[in-house]
Each structure stands twice: as structure tokens, then as C-alpha cells.
Amino acid sequence: MDESRRDFLKTGAKSIAVAAAGTSLRTWGDQPKILGANSRVRVAVVGLRGRGENHIQSYGALPNVEIAALCDIDDNVMSERLAGVRKLGCQPKTYKDIRKLLDDKSIDAVSIATPHHWHASMAIWACQAGKDVYVEKPCSHNLWEGGQIVRAAAKYNRIVQHGTQSRSNPAVIEAVQKIQKEALIGDVYLSRGLCFKWRDTIGHTPASPVPAGVDYDLWTGPAPLQPFTKNHFHYNWHWFWDYGNGDLGNQGIHQIDIARWGLGLGFPNKISAIGGHFMFDDDQQTPNTLNCAFEYNLPNGKRALLEFEVRHWISNHEAGIGQRRDASAASAETAHGGLGPKEGSYNSVGNIFYGSKGYLAIDNVAGYKSWLGQEQQPGPSAPEAKENHFANFIECVISRKKEDLRAPIEEGHFSSGLAHLANTSYRLGRTLNFDPETQLVKGDDAANQMLRDGDRGYRAPFAVPEKV
User: Fold this and answer.
1) Disulfide check for 280: which of 201, 297, 428, 457 has CB 3.0–4.6 Å away?
2) 10 and 104 share one domain
3) Are 244 and 324 members of one domain?
4) Which one has a higher pLDDT value, 366 or 439?
5) Mean pLDDT across the stretch 260-267?
6) Does any domain span residue 463?
7) In the structure, what pLDDT confidence band is assigned to residue 94 with cuts at 50, 70 and 90?
8) Does 262 share its domain with 396?
């Protein structure tokens, strides 16, 4: 572990010295009740479509959790999820506005699965309200926001888990141990993350009336209020800078996290990203093809390199990643030459670590394999195993042992920060020379401003608090 990362985990990030508009501290009063070893944790799930449904299913399977509240800006989604939660034996309260939910002192923890631009405000408000927090990846919409969540978690002594659930996957944990503790592949000089996902064009969608039952003002929250279009709403918001971070911060954040975890490092010293939005004429703003490089200067005078790549269309596999499927999927891939438009069957999503003694590949859905020596003989491997990231969070909520979190918010800030740094390099068209101590780009005010507010500012009263 490098010194900057160790200091950060002890003390929290240093303040970023870039002025911007913010909001004052909001307080919710008394601290919550103390939970006992046999307590049922009362969880509120915020953001119920897509990943939020996974939150509900995961908490619903845990015996020591009660889904006590649901929050969403869409009445149609709410009614559907409410029916499902009631089948689990829970009778949750329902909210459209998280600020009203946070007034409920019976809620122990808040689980956030909203679009990215809302993550930081909600996580910080929840900490201020005395709630523990599970926040989906990336925890922030820009670099500064991540540091603010870290500070809030420390100040209010909250358990805050980041939604990079691969850190709870036994196969991935074993792979990282093989790399770090056992030096299976020797000195690791290159860590590579892959996000090759077949993604079709989103087309063009004109401004249209807001759907019935949707509070679009609340959905927009801290972002600038734009005319409603279908492409700005369900899922496709990922591809607009005001709300999302492209596939780098969508699927890719998981692979960035594993790539950095395997290296045992925090923030890099130099970042460069180049790419573009290719093939399609549509509304998408974020790149669909992107090459990122993160350079680390190590205390021993050596350097390490982390690479990350996004591809959006037809692609080969690398190191077998994407080829290891069940028998029926494998035969289908063979019939189609290993390529095709079927989401989930032809993707290559994973990590490759290269060292002096061999290389190791982690497949997002198929465990890991390794190859050793110049002859690349098969080495240790393990199949995919089920993770239970939510159970780890709940265990830590009850025990109050932050050190047992598998994805503490400090680690989430590092990995989310890498995505923001690469996107900033791409958007400005230049390499960034970064100081991990101050968390500032050296001699580049424009880059620091973009890392501070995403180049879009904040809309009152939803802004990320300046003082936590």
C-alpha cells in the first residue's frame, strides 16, 4: 500500500482548494438507536428501478433486515416495487423525497441506487441524519464529491459501504490474494481492466411531456434542469455528462476497482485518456470507445501502470475473458464465431494482471485463471462464486466495525476518482499530472474545476454540502 493511500485511510482526504457554490449543513437531530447483535436492521431503499430492485431482493433474503421504507420519484415504479416488498412480509413506508425519509428516526440505514448525480448528496445527508449508508458505484459524480462523503462518514461515525460488490466475491478475493500475498505472478507491472459490452445506438429523442406520476424536478436534483426527453431518463441517463459518467463509471468502475485493488494502490500520478463516440449519430455525449492509462510512481523508484478500456461494439476476447460460459452459451458463441449482438453473451468484462512470472485473468462471470512461466502453463484457478456484499454491510451496521467492510467508502472514493480523472483527461484532451496528497491536478485550473463540479455546477437546494 502506498503512503498516500495509507494516510488517506487514516485521516480522510485533504480539502480540495477550489472554490465553488455549496450548501450549509443540514441537521436531523438525535443519533439513531444502538443496534444489538440480534437486531433487525431497518433499511430504506432509495431509487427502485434497475439496480434498486436488486437491492430489494438482496435485503429481502437476509433474516436480520426489514425493508422499512421505499423512496422513488416515479409512482409507477413505486407501486410495482411496493407490491413485491409486501410479498416479502414487509409493510414499508413510501416516499418521493429522501429529505422527508431522513426525518424518520426509526430508519437505521439507507441504500442508494439512484442515478449517479444524486449519490453524493443523498449519502452525505444520510450520514448527517445518523443513518448508515450503502451507496452504489460510483459513489460520486465528480472527484470532490467522493472526498465529501469520506469526510461525512468519518465525522458522523457512519458505516458506509460502496457498491463495488466484486470485493465480496470469493473468487476475486482469492485472485487478489494470489497476486498480492503469494506473489503468484511475481512483480506486477501492468493491471488491465476490460469493459467490452455490446451497446446499440440510443437514437434521438425530442423533448416530450413528463410521464404521469414522475417528479422530474426531484429526479433532476442537483443537476441543471433540462427539458424532459426519454433519453435523459431511464438508464440512458448514463450517457449524459449532467447525470452519468459513461461506461467508464457504469460497468467499468467494477473493473477499475479490481485493477487498482490488485495493485494495492490509491490515486495515480499521471492520467491520460483518449477515445470518442464512434459509429452512431445520436444523443449520447459520453464516449463509447475509450482508452485510459494511469501511471503510479512507487516509493521504491519503480512505476506501475493501470490500463482501462471501453469498447462498445464487435470485439475479440482477451485472455479467455467472455469465453467461459455454460454449455448452451458456449455452443451459441461457437456458432456465431464468438461475436454477436446479444447483451450478456458476447461481452468481455474483466481484468488481466501481468507480472514477471506470468499473468492472471479475472472474468466478470466466470472466476479466475492464471498462466505461469514463459511456457504459460496453467496455474491456480477458481470458478465464479456467489458474493453477498449486502450481508457484509448489514453485519458491519450491527457490529459497528468499519474495518470489516469489504468496500469501505475510502476505497470507493479512490476507484470512482480514477473514473473521474480519466473522463476529465478525455474531455479536456490532455494528460493530467495529479498530486495524490492534495487531490489536485498540478497547474491545471480547468481540470480542477471539472473535478470539483463536473463543469455544470449545482442546483439549489439539492447541492452536495460544502460543509459536512
Assistant:
1) 201
2) yes
3) yes
4) 439
5) 97
6) no
7) very high
8) no
What integer pLDDT is reported at residue 150 of this predicted model? 98
Domain identity same for 261 and 370: yes
Split at pLDDT 50, 70, 90, the class of 27 is low
The answer to whether residue 424 is domain-embedded is: no
Q: The pTM is what? A: 0.91
Residue range 445-463: average pLDDT? 94
Q: Evaluate whether residue 432 is within a structural domain.
A: no
Q: Examine the domain organization and report whether 198 and 347 are in the same domain.
A: yes
Once rounded to an integer, what is the mean pLDDT over residues 284-310? 96
Would 199 be classed as within a structural domain? Answer: yes
Q: Both 108 and 11 in a single domain?
A: yes
> What are the residues facing 94 on neighbouring strands?
70
* Helices 143-155, 445-453: crossing angle, 10 deg rounding: 50
Q: Considering its fold, how many domains does the chain have in total?
A: 2
pLDDT (0 to 100) of residue 30: 53
What is the span of the domain harbouring residue 229? 169-204+215-378
Q: Say whether pLDDT at 135 is over 80.
A: yes
Q: What is residue 300's predicted lDDT score, i.e. its pLDDT?
A: 87
Residue of 21 and 54 predicted with greater confidence: 54
CATH, residue 361: 3.30.360.10
Residue 420's nearest CA partner among 226, 310, 267 is 267
C-alpha cell at 456: 455544470
